[in-house]
Each structure stands twice: as structure tokens, then as C-alpha cells.
Amino acid sequence: MAEDVACIADDQSVIQLGLTIVLNGILHKCRIVSDSVKYEQEATCFDNGGHYSIGDTFRNGSFRLTCRRDGITIEGCYLQNPG
Questions:
Q1: Which DSSP symbol is given to 12?
Q2: Nearest-CA neighbor of 60 among 35, 82, 77?
Q3: 10-residue mean pLDDT series, the chain (83 residues)
Q4: Alpha helix locations (H) across the chain?
């Protein structure tokens, strides 16, 4: 019987068992759950060199941002008191 060692993504990319990677803005997870291999993919946002999962809130400069399914939204801003 063959042993599972990887998952195959929709674009035919090979994701090694136990790895979580980002390819083309999509988070790919290949892992063992109980006695089977589980493959998951999730959209991410990319901003200022970092990848964020859907629902993550983060700061870029003076803006408070949230990663949403349709992209990054500005939730607010941070003020800096002078002096």
C-alpha cells in the first residue's frame, strides 16, 4: 500500500505533508488528521511584506486594516499625539 506524502493543489502544485505555505495569495495546508490526509486552502491578503488570514486585523502606518474575503479594508486610523 502506498504512503501519502503530499497533497496536490488545484494548480497542480505539490504541497508536502505537514507544510503550510502561501502560493499566489492562497494559503495551502497539507496535514494528517486522524488516519487521513487533509488538504485545505484559504484566501489571504498581502500587505507590506506580510500575509494575513481572513479576519486578521493589522496596522500599516497610521491605518488599522482588516483582511476580508474581497480584499483589505480600512477600519480606522491611529492618531499620534504631538510631543
A1: S
A2: 77
A3: 78 90 89 90 91 94 94 92 70
A4: none
Domain boundaries, the chain: 6-77
Q: Say which DSSP state 24 is in.
A: T
pTM higher than 0.85 for the full model? Answer: no
Q: Which of 33, 27, 26 is nearest to 17 (CA)?
A: 33
Give, in order, the Cα–Cα distances in Å from 82 to each of 6, 46, 64, 79: 54, 31, 20, 9
In this prediction, residue 1 carries a pLDDT of 55
Distant-in-sequence, close-in-space partners of 47: CB < 8 Å, separation ≥ 6: 58, 60, 65, 72
At 39, which helix (H) or strand (E)? strand 36-47
Please provide the DSSP assignment of 56-73 as one string.
Answer: -EEEETTEEEEEETTEEE
